[in-house]
Amino acid sequence: MTDAEKAAAHSKAHQKWILDTLKENHGSCSYEKLVEVGEEHQCDTVGAMLKILKNRKLIHFKQMFLMFPMHKDEIVTLLNNDGSSESTAKKKKPVAADNNNNNNNNKKKVESAKKKVAPILFKIGDEVITDNDTRSACLGVITKVPTSGDGQYGIKFYGWKAGKEANYAGNKLTKATESELQKLPAKSTTKGPVLTSNNDNNNTDNVDNTSLENDVAKLKVNDSDDKKVENNNSSGDSSVFYTHDQLKHPGPFPEGVDVTKRETYLSEEDTEKLFGMSKEALAAMPKWKRNNLKKKVQLF
Fold this sequence. Notes:
Elements lengths: L2 H22 L3 E3 H10 L5 H10 L3 E2 L14 E4 L7 H6 L7 H18 L10 E4 L7 E7 L7 E6 L7 E5 L3 E3 L2 H6 L2 H4 L19 H26 L9 H4 L20 H8 L3 H6 L2 H10 L4
Antiparallel strand pairs: 1-3, 2-3, 4-5, 4-8, 5-6, 6-7
């Protein structure tokens, strides 16, 4: 594959996750959200990708070109093929010529909608891994199943992504196997609370609200514990330190190291040498700026 073909393939892949992110967020989200997701995909050209998609009339935003953090609150909207936004398109209602035609059209649309409803692949309480194409082990628990043809499942994450929630299409999820759960880091393999339904047919109208509230409370406790661990690492209070060679890309890394925060396992001396500042000053920087520095020293 030539360099030009590789560049085109990278551009196509980045445009795809941008469109997928907008779909998962019901057709629109802030530029800041897309930059955060871009960091997970190691994409530092989010603005350029958005410009390309806007020129292709697939998305819309007001500015000519988005720059971070100046335009972080700008809303990016997914467009339909006719140039209208998805939220606008959903508000359109069919107009019938007369009452008889209206009844017939409504019946046909109801039957057609029933055929298009995606099958329920998971039930509330199932532990799943998102982005099953890459098996990236973003572990979460199903909190909501689709109630219409949108096929969107509600996910509550725990482990290294604790506290975050998102909606995913069924084809982006895979039920986690026992062997996969055992391979995850210690704080990710902790079983999440199982959210149960009173109906084996996955009908969310009859969910036991009392049980659901108790399970969500358990999730919050787990989230709090994970955040305490993260705070200990970010403050540099850990008594375990590793050298730059042990922590730099591509690994393998020491057991128990959070690969997304490898800089917190450096000693104060090594931090000063690599970044020219203290661990406290580095931790206080904006995430996007800190990640740019980490890339230069192979810690991202």
